[in-house]
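yo

u said u wanted the structure for the complex thing, so here. seqs first:
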Amino acid sequence: MRGILGYGAYVPYNRLKRSAIGEALGSGGGKGTRAVASYDEDATSMAVEAARDLMRTVSVTPSSVVFATTSPPYLDKTNANVIHAALNLPSSVFAVDMIGSARSAGGALRSALEGTRPALVAQADVRTGRPESGDESNCGDAAVTFMIGSDDDGPVIAEYLGGASATAEFLERWRLPEWKYSRVWEERFGEHVYLPLVTEAAAAAFKECSLEPSDIDVAIVTGLHSRAARGAASAAGLDGTKVADDLALTLGNTGAAHPGLVLASVLDSAQPGQTLMIVHLADGCDVSFFRTTDAITGYRPASTVAEQIASGNDTLTYNKYLTWRGFLDREPPRRPDPENPAAPPSYRSEAWKFAFMGSKDRSSGAVHLPPQRVSVKGGAVDDMDLVPMADVQATVATFTIDRLAYSLSPPTIAVVIDFDGGGRFQCALADADTVKIGDRVQMTFRRLMTAKGVHNYFWKAKPVKA
Amino acid sequence: MASKGIKDQVAIIGMGCTNFGEHWDKSVDDMLIDAAQEAYASAGVKQTDIDAYWFGTLGSGVSGLTLSRALKIDYKPVTRVENMCATGSEAFRNACYAVASGAYDVVMAIGVEKLKDNGMSGLVSGVIPDDGTKPELTAPAMFSLLAPAYSAKYGVDETEMKDVLTRIAWKNHYNGARNPRAQFRKEVGKDAICNAPLIAGQLGIFDCSGVSDGSAAAIIVRAEDAYKYTDKPLFVKALAFTAGPAAGPIDPDYDYTTFHEVSACARDAYAQAGVTDPRAEIAMAEVHDCFTPTELVLMEDLGFAERGLGWKEVLAGTYDLDGDLPINPDGGLKSFGHPIGASGLRMLFECWLQLRQEAPAERQIKTVTEGGKKLGMTHNLGGAPGECVSFVSIVGSELG
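structre next:
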């Protein structure tokens, strides 16, 4: 049996009320909210967060990491390597990107499902749109990860039953690498092309897997072309079948992450023996089937999608949103531009910078962040072990709010934090408006800034959810 | 093994100090020439009498050439010194040791910094390539970490703490208003200080020292030669310097209410000088008030207040110009700004004026004129809470 061994979903903390767009621009917007990656997040950093959640729920080391996104922070350089490094995976683990279109998500999942070894599939997106566009309000940002493997690797919670696809070349949505947003053709044209492809792919999939629409307990229907996606259930022969909430009202369509994110939300409350059908519209149509197993009753995600939806903050202003996404070029403080991290020091400190590994003095037990060769307690030299600190919680010892520091979202909250069991670190506090001594925090992987085209990935603290 | 000191072995015989401020019309060379010429005149020596130079700057030049080119020094040793915000003091310390060693008879310590040419707010330091994981706090943010930690430890509420910090800024501006060399020469009302826009944490704009250009210089000889040049030399009683393990930001035992480097540095200085009760024996101190919480914590680290009681002493006026122990009678970094290479020597310049009773009447401290105290202190720290270097000097107007 091969299928899903575990999953982790990551929904960023911030939401933009769609009404805020209309209020600012006089038109556009709509109902509900969209999820917004913070100014210090991107597809890679969110994928790391989702992958960390996943790794808390499974005990398998993948043989590969496959990262799908339409918003890759780097071209030429493999983004999946950052995920690989943040998870402190062995160098023998393969890491690769499948980037470009939202269909890459289906491709990444299918290649893992049709493979033979355990694979970590990460899907994440920061979806933008030109101000006032449908993409801007309808899309959202999120990440999801799956561990794919067989029952030799661990309990399979949802068995992959198979699927089918339909492909056609048509100009519906496109974006040049240097563009900040996509362009789309007239909406009705896409609907005209997509729906027959859905019908074709669904019929082929049902036949391939010897299933009928009546066998389906829950259908997951996603696609950036929302009009086509709305008609897709019917086109797939699923009239009368339960279709999962597509999260459009609360989070928006999260591009390459979306089919997986909706699947994660369904798995959060799935019962054993349920047959799930995924219909994903992206430059064609991909259909796949899963059946939940008895193992799902014993599986607990680190955090459910519903919990993350409920804990979002919708006070983000539209001006701030535009600033974060680079649509509003604001006057910086009169301070030097931030410097890019240099390649050799970053390479030397991979375990620290990406995986947040500290060092523990064997004689005194003192934990050092970053790792030190000479102990602060007793001065022992080269007598330390690396210790993972990314999942250790901490308490705020003191703090400040820096209104002068260079930031896309000033002011910066800085905290000095003391880790449970030892170790102190000074860093920025993410996803918080207030802070006080004694607050409990956990670590989160972020993109601190970008300078000279170099993304500076590192860790911040964020409040522990109550 | 211990710091032995060079008490009463060397003396200052002349000093110079430029006005500090936004010197749009003066270059680094101009300020060095002005400070050096004033020092020569003050000591009654010529440039050719100087045997060697110690030149402090953080970033306004590199190597001894920055000084020798400006002053047209004729093939003498010039040592360029850098030790963060204690750079000027470090130039002085090393110059003193050179004389004490017997290597030279007459030397100059001189410092300069040109901060206003880069167009930035606050201090800007050079870039050393790194892995991008160091905290990116600005200087006011780093020092503002002291305030909530001190408040929590000693039960000082936020309003009281703001009053304490405001009192420190108010006092230093009061003093600076009486100093023609200061960058800011106006008193600032407590309401204006308290209600100023916030920069970091509880710190408003008036809780931060200014950004300025300046230069200062001292000429040093062996103590036995001092009276050949002046009737009123200042004798060096102690020179202490500490660099710590910089463990505060990574060691949970550090509580952000003290600078361990400063405490150790002060102990060493008092031992060198034979001072046993600093609060009673010291006439004045110029301390590193880069931000108001720094000065508060320094009062305790330097032994001028009991632990946890410094804030009460501040409110009681102990450190005012007419208080028991005037702190920063020249106006401090608050009124002078902090041209890094010059600050330590600028502090020494105030000791030079006050202990020789040459300060303007409205600023001359009574601990000297009426109290008869003979000792002055200068103090610098460079870095941030938990990871700094510290310098303390004690100078006196009499031998013994």
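Chain B has a mean pLDDT of 96. The two ends of chain B are 24 Å apart (CA to CA).
cya
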